[in-house]
Amino acid sequence: MAATIKDIKAETGLGLATISKFLNGGNVRAENRVKIEEAIKKLDYHPNETARSLVTKRTKTIGFVVNNISISFSGVLLQHASAYLHSRGYGMMICDSNCDKKQEEENIRFCVEKQVDGILITPTGKDADFLQPAEKAGIPVVLLDREVRSDHFDCVTIDNRNAAERAAHDLIKRGHRRIAMIHSEEYTGRERYEGYLAAMEKAGLKVLPEYIYAGEMHSPELGYESMKKLLSLKERPTAVLSSNYEVSLGVIMAIHESDIRCPEDVSLIGFDELILPMVLNPKLTVVAQPMEEIASEGVRILLKRIEEGKGVPPQRVSLYAALKDGDSVRNVG
Amino acid sequence: MAATIKDIKAETGLGLATISKFLNGGNVRAENRVKIEEAIKKLDYHPNETARSLVTKRTKTIGFVVNNISISFSGVLLQHASAYLHSRGYGMMICDSNCDKKQEEENIRFCVEKQVDGILITPTGKDADFLQPAEKAGIPVVLLDREVRSDHFDCVTIDNRNAAERAAHDLIKRGHRRIAMIHSEEYTGRERYEGYLAAMEKAGLKVLPEYIYAGEMHSPELGYESMKKLLSLKERPTAVLSSNYEVSLGVIMAIHESDIRCPEDVSLIGFDELILPMVLNPKLTVVAQPMEEIASEGVRILLKRIEEGKGVPPQRVSLYAALKDGDSVRNVG
DNA sequence: CTGTTAGCGCTTTCAA
DNA sequence: TTGAAAGCGCTAACAG
Q: Which of B50, B112, B113 sits opposite A54 (nearest CB)?
């Protein structure tokens, strides 16, 4: 049996309260502190977090409900979030929604049941109803990367629409007119598409239906298949905007397989500054999402909410995603 | 305040023990069962898992200590493990070791502190010392994908050495003599390299140092840079074995950028049947690790250990990884 | 600063 | 079957 606080009491002859106070960083007479420290070492005592939770009503665990754990973006976000959380003594329970609303709803319930102190989530859609159990249970929720139709929750995103608009604008500025876009109908993919539309419209450019490929989800296949088709057009686009990392991978593969060259024959801008497209020739020009900041801001806001309560109204933090030049875009005309 | 079992008692007039028994699936008179069910619905009662844990000494949470959460393999493994665990009512707390032994050691301690019921781990190395805190605390550990130098733990792997040997043998059987290998010095990469060596030796083939590229970790850069160099050799290999998914991606990119074709000019076999290399032309021939089985077997063994104790000696399950033909290998000579 | 006391919400003897 | 009571290990008043 593991040692308990009572064993420390027996060992030191002190009262439970004193020991508990010490454990929680309170002031104790130097002499007693030494006694307690020695007893702890001797008995290899570790506080029972469960017992502690029962009385403090804090589990020191947060739930991370991730829309799709198997994409690279999630891995990186999880990595950063987990690191921050651990450094603050919090554990991270992950629940994969696998891009499924039913599963996501279930995940929220699971988190509530497990009594996490807070929830970090990359939601699958814009609908906010499924978050109700958490709200009802008084568990703070911070949305990461995506917003929902509700102003009850804190939220850390990048301005996808604006970022995509800047990317498309950059292509236009460099003389491109025939610009294609490959995007998913998923959340962020949709927003990025809207940004593209805005840039095209402002420049007075026509959006050709044969230049638009929309898939259900972000995936390499989407990029690969779409790009194959774009390359087979009689009048090929001179530039392509790809709405996320997975999609870009597929696009690059398709280009490589053809005898079309990038950027000589076709320019390309992608999203997400993940490793692979950065080591390639040409280095991909991307809209770089500040992943670490998204994670750290999200964690910071969540912990603040947990520790200081619901005083302040929900915040919406929108981080800036810079367009980072690579070598995959050329000037035309 | 959330409803407690006492509220149910007040509502139904029954004793706490009866209600508790009902909650845990025990036999209760039909009439009382109805009463309790109604009260639960009316008060929206949910058992407090923390209180339950305090007395049962079970947190219904397992820790997953992952060597590197940002690689695709981890995402897929986590996805399956999480699904199985959830279906059994268990939560999954993840701890990323980020390929760092110090971090890994810290993660184990963190899990012990958090009193998880069991640990699933893809270890960073072969050394087993860091698992001691878990062992001392009586927390069962199941190793996934990789073994360590200790026979105290259950373990689910594929036979990497044998699988790589079969892959290399397949190349040899198809007439290849100049076979290169790109691998990491990480755990599985090393084992796969040994399998390659075994196949070459059995076939009486020389292993040329200029055909071997070893990197510290599995990464696309490793594959990309190594393949670039291999392709620039005066006497190029006719086939390349790549030790994991990330590495293969890099290799494919390098081939695409050159004017060498696969499989006409160079054959390629990779590891891990993940999506991208499957949608490409040519479809990559791979050693397919049974990811879902690794996860489900691991979870099954762990939960059994948790629920039925340490009676049986540690098991080592070695799953078969089949070589799946794609179109990236051609017959020569 | 210290110790006593009362719970946190639940499960589990044990006797009825 | 049921219920009263004890207690899991800890924190949080409160009195000293």
A: B50
